[in-house]
Amino acid sequence: MLRLGTRGSPLALVQAGLVRDALIAAHGWTREMVEVVPIRTTGDRVQDRPLAEIGGKALWTKELDRALLAREIDLAVHSMKDVETIRPDDIVIAATLPRADVRDRLVGAESLEALPPGARIGTSSPRRAAQVRAIRPDLCPVTFRGNVDTRLAKLAAGEVEATLLAAAGLERLGRQDVGVPVSIAEMLPAPAQGAVGIECRAADERTSAVLAAIDHLPTHACVLAERALLAALVADCHSPVAALARIEGGILTIDAALYAADGSAHVAAQESGAPTDPAVARVLAAKLLALAPPPIRALFGG
Ligand SMILES: NCc1[nH]cc(CCC(=O)O)c1CC(=O)O
């Protein structure tokens, strides 16, 4: 029997169910072979402040890491977008599910252009706030946290005129009809957006092997490349950075952009190479930092 650790949010529980179903299908197991263990994280408890302010992405992973290393669970399921760049040495990303729609969806208006002057956009993501301001400098990003349903309720209550949510999350919650997709050309997504990852203890060969059977290799390579870019940029959750890798004809291409916090400047670049070559992300990071004016550079490099 495998114990699968997850956060307890509705989206996290759906994603945990996807991993459980994939394991059952791949190995011909019964449902009882995978026990879902919800674990409450600091990030779930503190809902009223931006993630960047209260301690960053580790808030989502710390409790799951501890449970994993204490052998209370055998694997941990994460939205890879929320997993910090530097992971403990004794934990590995053993598998990723096939990536979902990577786009953001705009909820509350037909397009960013259609919003009234000065409209409030609920988002606590430095990337989304900067991208919105780059397109419409008059729009006002306001802090917006909580799970998907909480955010939609705040929007319905008129706290903001619009909000941006990941298509992947909406889709997995059965809310794929909410809002309109924003094209990748207009808003490049967050690194690892739309990807569900599964971690286990690095020394746990049995679980690693079981997870290898459900690993979607192209997604895994793209997510690792996007995360390698974050590492090379020394980006943290305050850094407005967008990145998306794809594999075509055996070649991995990463598109990425860095923004000034207020969206008043941005730089974009692209780099291609072999899917497993860590140099692609490093070269791209160097390109972006070389292009970046001081207000952007100041947000990177640690
Ligand atoms: N930061 C919260 C978060 N983490 C992952 C998703 C959506 C699912 C995904 O991108 O994998 C979301 C919600 C959102 O950004 O709308």
Task: List the keywords.
302 residues, alpha/beta, D-Maltodextrin-Binding Protein, domain 2, Double Stranded RNA Binding Domain, 3 domains, five-stranded mixed β-sheet, 11 helices, globular, binds the ligand NCc1[nH]cc(CCC(=O)O)c1CC(=O)O
Question: Could you walk me through the main structural features you see in this protein, from its secondary elements to its overall organization?
Answer:
The chain has 302 residues and is of the alpha/beta class. The chain has three domains: 2-97 and 195-215, 3-Layer(aba) Sandwich (D-Maltodextrin-Binding Protein, domain 2), CATH 3.40.190.10; 104-181, D-Maltodextrin-Binding Protein, domain 2, CATH 3.40.190; 231-297, Double Stranded RNA Binding Domain. The chain is built from eleven helices and 13 strands. It has helices spanning 10-27, 42-45, 51-54, 58-69, 126-135, 148-156, 167-172, 205-212, 217-233, 279-291, 294-297; strands spanning 2-6, 34-38, 75-79, 91-96, 104-107, 120-122, 140-142, 162-166, 180-181, 196-201, 241-248, 251-259, 266-273. Strand 11 (241-248) and strand 12 (251-259) form a beta hairpin. It starts with a strand and ends in a 5-residue tail after the last helix. The structure holds ligand PBG. The ligand NCc1[nH]cc(CCC(=O)O)c1CC(=O)O binds at residues 79, 81-82, 165-166, 168-169, 193-195. GO terms for molecular function: hydroxymethylbilane synthase activity.
